[in-house]
Amino acid sequence: MPNPPIRLLDLMRQTEDPHVINLAAGIPSADFLPLDALRTALEGELASRAREMFSYHRPEGVSLLREAIRDYLGVRGVNVQSDQILVTTGCSGALATMMNTVLKRGDTVVCEAPAYYGQLELLRAIGVKFRTVNTAVGQEPDPAKWEKALKTKPKPKLLVVTSTLSNPSGATLKEEWRPRMVEMCRKMGVPILEDDIYGDLLGRGRPKPLRAYDDGSTVLYVTSFSKTVAPGLRIGFALPGKWMDVAADRQCRQTIHGGVPPEFITASFLRSGRMEGHLEMLRSVYAKRRELAGGILSRELPEGVRADDPSGGYMLWVRGGGPGLMEEVSKQSLAKGVAVVGGGIFFANPPKEACFRLNCARATPEDLARGVGIFCEVLKSAVVRKK
């Protein structure tokens, strides 16, 4: 009997094992949390508004946070009013609310291949039918390929895309294609769900989000501060556009609202002016980690297997060889104390080649080098056995 597919739940549980070098779950390093700034924010908010922090608030989110997010977005080319922002429990909460707002069982959805497995799990739970467009670093599809997928019958009800540093491949949609894609979907009447959770890790050259080219009639935008500030805050947000009232109503019925203390803490941190400097530090650290892991991969990967350089973020996407390698290599790596995730979970339909996502952020440089080395050894041995 085949093993059941690995789930997001399984990957999150793996992170608690101190004896495993975890290159699997897409979790940022706890070593670079802005703890001093967060401590200052917490103490300041407790001193000035403790009663507010522990009371009910608007389902859409604390007004101070929504105003801070408005300003944060403005710097990134997205100009909205604070009442257009829906605060959510992480980006996962934003994705779930947006998907369930616009989709129903049997609808067709256009998405990337590969795509974030959390997106795919949510879509499968709704019961949609998938239509995919192949994306990877160096293989980014031009708008004509997206257009072909959108025009195929039956008409899709949603296009889901991680526009910058797509997880897991690291692909980034070219900036000159973004307004064209938004206009194309607007004319076809197909909403875009844009996941921008890794956008801030690309650096100064990051393109404007798709939402920057829309008035809220086509693009539903989601992101969070989990990959950049602190995942434990569980602060994400959405720009639902014309679906705002329906989305807020759905979220209110599910949770009333998110945790209020983290909302005030995040608002204070964003207002402190420390965000951009913190992001510069993260980009520098993660670039060094990617370079370390990428150097080992370039020397040690077997012939026919390659690692893509995404030029940002903290993931590396390794691909090549037969798809049967994924389960074997993942199991044997874990037996040697290294957790990696086989890339099959990132596809709505089974991939035609083996692929693996490696997280370069969480392990120390020493553990990262050791873990990547073990992964390469296991992969080389598996490739030899398959010949």
Task: Name some characteristics of this structure.
387 residues; alpha/beta; Aspartate Aminotransferase, domain 1; Aspartate Aminotransferase, domain 2; seven-stranded mixed sheet
Describe the structure.
This protein has 387 residues and is an alpha/beta fold. The protein has two domains: 136 residues, Aspartate Aminotransferase, domain 1, CATH 3.90.1150; 238 residues, Type I PLP-dependent aspartate aminotransferase-like (Major domain) (Aspartate Aminotransferase, domain 2, 3-Layer(aba) Sandwich), CATH 3.40.640.10. It has twelve helices and 13 strands. It has a seven-stranded mixed β-sheet, sandwiched between helices. A four-stranded antiparallel β-sheet has the order 9-10-13-12, covered by helices on one side. A two-stranded parallel ribbon has the order 1-11. A hairpin with a 6-residue loop joins strand 9 and strand 10. Helix 6 runs parallel beside helix 7. The longest helix is centred in the C-terminal third of the chain and has 26 residues. It is globular and about 65 Å long.
Report the radius of gyration as a whole number of Å.
21 Å
What share of residues is helical?
Answer: 40-55%
Amount of beta strand: 5-15%
- The unreliable regions are none
Total strands: 13
Query: What CATH architecture of the largest domain do you see?
Result: 3-Layer(aba) Sandwich
Name the overall outline: globular
CATH superfamily of the largest domain: Type I PLP-dependent aspartate aminotransferase-like (Major domain)
What class, by secondary structure content? Answer: alpha/beta
Q: What is the average per-residue confidence, as pLDDT, rounded to a whole number?
A: 93
CATH third-level topology of the largest domain: Aspartate Aminotransferase, domain 2
Whole-number tally of structural domains: 2
CATH top level assignment of the largest domain: Alpha Beta
Number of helices: 12
In order across it, which strands form the biggest sheet?
2-8-7-6-5-3-4
Distance between the termini: 24 Å
Largest sheet: 7 strands, mixed
Instruction: Name the helix and strand elements from N-terminus to C-terminus, one letter apiece.
Output: HEHHEHEHEHEHEEEHHHEEHEEEH
